Amino acid sequence: MLLLKIYWHLMAIVQRCCYKILYGSRVHFGRGVTWRKGFSLVIDGGHVRIGNGVFFNNNCSLTSQGEIEIGDDCILGENVKLYDHNHRFGGKTLIKNQGFSKGGAKNRPQLLAGQ
């Protein structure tokens, strides 16, 4: 079990470096941010700020077209998905043709998500 934990921490370090190269100043990782398998980060014109000591369990994802901010010392459970946008819907037009509405997503420090 200890070897698996070390493996996922090392993989998170490598992935953080890749995300910094890919997204540059649009993403900020605080100290001690780590995750397990299946973590996904997509920034499509937005910004993501992740505070210190944040932990993402298996299969978490963040998708930003606006702004996502996660405070210090948050723990996100398995399969938590955070979006800062949503499909517009209304009337008789197909949802896929109505575009997106953008907002922000902020989590307080020490939040426990996915219980």
Keywords:
115 residues, alpha/beta, 1 helix, 19% helix
Topology of this structure?
Layout: H1 2-23, E1 27-29, E2 34-35, E3 40-43, E4 47-50, E5 55-56, E6 61-64, E7 67-70, E8 75-76, E9 81-83, E10 85-87, E11 100-102, E12 104-107, E13 112-113
Q: Can you put this structure into words, describing what you see?
A:
With 115 residues, this protein is of the alpha/beta class. The protein has one domain. Helices cover 19% and strands 35% of the residues. A 4-stranded parallel β-sheet has the order 1-4-7-12. The chain has a 4-stranded parallel β-sheet with strand order 2-5-8-13. A 3-stranded parallel β-sheet has the order 3-6-9, with no helix packed on it. The radius of gyration is 15 Å and the shape is elongated.
Biggest sheet: strand arrangement: 1-4-7-12
Task: Tell me the number of structural domains.
Answer: 1
Q: Helix/strand-derived class?
A: alpha/beta
User: Between the first and last Cα atoms, what is the distance in angstroms?
Assistant: 23 Å
Q: Give the H and E element order.
A: HEEEEEEEEEEEEE
Rg on CA atoms, Å: 15 Å
Largest sheet: 4 strands, parallel
Number of helical segments? 1
How confident is the prediction overall: mean pLDDT? 84
Please state roughly what percent of the residues sit in beta strands, choosing from under 5%, 5-15%, 15-25%, 25-35%, 35-45% or over 45%.
25-35%
Globally, the shape reads: elongated
**Number of DSSP strands?**
13
Helix content: 10-25%
Give the uncertain stretches in residue-range form: none
